[in-house]
Amino acid sequence: MVLWVFGYGSLVWNPGFDYDEKVIGFIKDYKRVFDLACIDHRGTPELPARTCTLEESEGAICWGAAFCVRGGPEKERLAMEYLERRECEYDRKSLVDFYKEGITSAPAVTRVIVFTSTPDKVSNKYYLGPAPLEVMASQIATAVGPCGNNRDYLFLLEKAMFDIGHEDDMVIELANEVRKVLAMVGTVKEKKLVGLPNILPAHISAIQLHVLPEAITLDS
């Protein structure tokens, strides 16, 4: 048996578990949204962070990375135990078809696990629901938790999607709105980030990201 997991958030750049193969691709009929609360990694119960989850949307595609774990039941068990701790705010695990770039007629892998959340505030205490762009940006600009601040999560996702060659317009729009909020309160410093490519797309500023503690391995 082989375990496949699809990552569309922090798993894209920081999987945190032992895997054998990483494949860039997409799943169909889902879109990325920032509707899920995080209260233990990049936010607190008093000021929850907004992290991304998936929303069903016919005809949409969501790019990310699929991770394959081979090596037997024990290795798979350890990977899933880690992921279930890390993704504890996601109350559903769905099985999806995964497609590679350039091959859309048939999935490259079937029955790939993806962590999602029930879009209902009554049955899912972590579901924040949609909000105006300015409201989400304000929340993301100010939330911080044990693993770092919420804005770095968004900026790192923006960079990760750029790095794999499949930028997400919604992520770009939200990240730019967060930069406006930070600029208004004077917290943005124009300092080149070590590790970023020398040439960034026009919409990505040379922002300062904070070094995060080891707890980032349990990011969400």
Q: What is the straight-line distance between the termini?
A: 26 Å
What is the 3D shape? Answer: globular
Low-confidence stretches: 190-200, 205-218
Averaged pLDDT: 87
Order of strands across the biggest sheet?
1-3-2-4-5
Counting DSSP H or I runs of 4 or more residues, the number of helices is 4
Helix-and-strand structural type? alpha+beta
What gyration radius follows from the Cα positions, in whole Å?
17 Å
Strand content: 25-35%
Largest sheet: 5 strands, antiparallel
How many runs of DSSP E, i.e. beta strands?
7
Helix content: 10-25%
Query: Could you state the order of secondary-structure elements as H and E?
Result: EEEHEEHEEHH
Task: Provide structural commentary.
The C terminus is likely disordered. The longest helix has 16 residues. The protein starts with a strand and ends in a 36-residue tail after the last helix. It is globular, with a radius of gyration of 17 Å. By secondary structure, the chain is of the alpha+beta class. The protein has 4 helices and 7 strands.
How would you summarize what this structure contains?
The chain has helices at residues 73-86, 133-142, 150-163, 169-184; strands at 3-7, 21-38, 49-69, 92-100, 109-116, 144-145, 148-149.
